[in-house]
């Protein structure tokens, strides 16, 4: 049985009363630190959060950590850092989250040389893989990163993403529907999850996606059966789900996985592997937490992302219940 912990960074989960009650959740109040933590945080802040979770834990049981918006997915590092045996990370997301640390920090902080000092929601996989017990990361549903889209309308490729992690077999990326993307720079090789065919200045990436290779369940069963460890840690950003089935406030930039597909995959993982930790994000922040952002760059990012969504949607009981129901069903798969 998991010990359930809620990092209340944005009010996205603490309104889910049944989840809190049913799993006797430990709530760690962090709303006053929302502006410091959203999108990225300094390594000292991350170490402080790890200490808070460690001290707040009531048991030695594996942790299930909920923490609101996908803007905070770098907080997955907290639960991952607690595991002290060899394990594989299983990652459900619409985004790869292995952007190059130098690139994302140049874009967000304007200081590329501070890459190792910050944890960013777009590049948290890089420091996670530097932890000694993390042997591999496999990810499912990644449709949102490798094409030029309006959310981040810039070419993707060797300068933006850590594709070396794929060549080193530290990461495997399985999109849901994306079968092809054109990447800037030359990459060459046939990997488990993608074939890279280089041109003069670009690379044609042919992804071995789930929809064309037997569906979500078939691909996940095949991949999970071949991971190198018995122990696994599961991290979920619910923007992997169709926006009709979950309210992540990433309208137009969510995946197409259905809740039933995710739950069936989790059930298989729970039956065939030993799950040593879990974290879940992708529950939209309440609007008040978004308005508390102080850092100029973060304000610009938040306005670009959230201003087009009516405020009433963030406090809608229908959306809160929709998110809570998915969280409860995720927990049930591992019971």
**Which blocks of ≥5 consecutive residues have pLDDT under 50?**
none
Total DSSP helices = 12
The coarse silhouette is: globular
User: For the CA atoms, what is the radius of gyration?
Assistant: 19 Å
CATH architecture: 3-Layer(aba) Sandwich
| Main sheet strand line-up | 2-1-4-14-13-5-7-8
CATH homologous superfamily caption: Ureohydrolase domain
> What is the domain tally?
1
Write the H/E string, N to C: EHEHEHEHEHEHEHEEEEEHEHEHHH
Topology:
Blueprint lengths: L2 E6 L8 H6 L3 E4 L4 H4 L2 E3 H14 L6 E4 L9 H6 L5 E6 L8 H8 L9 E3 L4 H5 L4 E7 L23 H4 L3 E4 L5 E5 L4 E2 L3 E5 L3 E6 L8 H9 L6 E7 L21 H14 L1 E8 L5 H5 L4 H11 L10 H17 L2
Parallel strand pairs: 1-2, 1-4, 4-14, 5-7, 5-13, 7-8, 13-14
Antiparallel strand pairs: 3-6, 9-12, 10-11, 11-12
Helix pairs in contact: 8-9, 9-12
Describe this structure in words.
By secondary structure, the chain is of the alpha/beta class. The protein has a single domain, classed as 3-Layer(aba) Sandwich (Arginase, Chain A). It is 31% helix and 21% strand. The protein contains twelve helices and 14 strands. The chain has helices at 17-22, 34-37, 43-56, 76-81, 101-108, 125-129, 164-167, 216-224, 259-272, 287-291, 296-306, 317-333, and strands at residues 3-8, 26-29, 40-42, 63-66, 87-92, 118-120, 134-140, 171-174, 180-184, 189-190, 194-198, 202-207, 231-237, 274-281. The strands form three sheets. It has an eight-stranded parallel beta sheet, sandwiched between helices. It has a four-stranded antiparallel beta sheet with strand order 9-12-11-10, with no helix packed on it. The radius of gyration is 19 Å and the shape is globular.
């Amino acid at each position: 049985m998991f010990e359930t912990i809620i990092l209340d960074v944005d009010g996205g989960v603490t309104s889910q009363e049944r989840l809190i009650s049913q799993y006797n959740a430990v709530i760690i109040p962090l709303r006053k630190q929302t502006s410091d933590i959203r999108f990225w945080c300094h390594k000292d802040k991350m170490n402080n959060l790890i200490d808070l979770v460690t001290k707040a834990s009531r048991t030695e049981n594996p942790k299930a950590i909920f923490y609101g918006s996908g803007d905070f997915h770098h907080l997955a590092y907290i639960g991952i850092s607690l595991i002290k045996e060899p394990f594989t990370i299983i990652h459900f997301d619409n985004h790869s989250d292995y952007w190059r640390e130098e690139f994302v920090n140049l874009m967000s902080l304007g200081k590329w040389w501070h890459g190792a000092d910050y944890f960013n929601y777009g590049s948290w996989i890089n420091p996670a893989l530097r932890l000694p017990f993390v042997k591999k990361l496999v990810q499912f549903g990644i449709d949102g990163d490798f094409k030029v889209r309006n959310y981040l309308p810039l070419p993707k490729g060797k300068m933006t993403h850590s594709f070396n992690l794929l060549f080193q077999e530290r990461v495997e990326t399985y999109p849901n529907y994306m079968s092809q993307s054109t990447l800037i720079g030359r990459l060459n090789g046939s990997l488990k999850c993608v074939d890279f065919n280089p041109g003069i200045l670009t690379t044609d990436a042919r992804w071995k996606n789930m929809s064309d290779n037997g569906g979500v369940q078939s691909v996940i069963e095949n991949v999970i059966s071949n991971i190198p460890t018995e122990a696994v840690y599961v991290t979920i950003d619910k923007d992997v789900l169709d926006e009709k089935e979950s309210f992540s406030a990433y309208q137009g930039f969510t995946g197409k996985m259905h809740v039933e597909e995710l739950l069936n995959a989790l059930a298989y993982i729970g039956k065939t592997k030993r799950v040593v930790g879990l974290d879940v994000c992708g529950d939209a922040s309440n609007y008040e937490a978004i308005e508390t952002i102080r850092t100029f760059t973060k304000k610009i990012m938040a306005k670009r992302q959230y201003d087009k969504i009516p405020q009433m949607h963030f406090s809608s009981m229908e959306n809160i219940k929709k998110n809570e129901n998915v969280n409860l069903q995720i927990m049930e798969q591992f019971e």
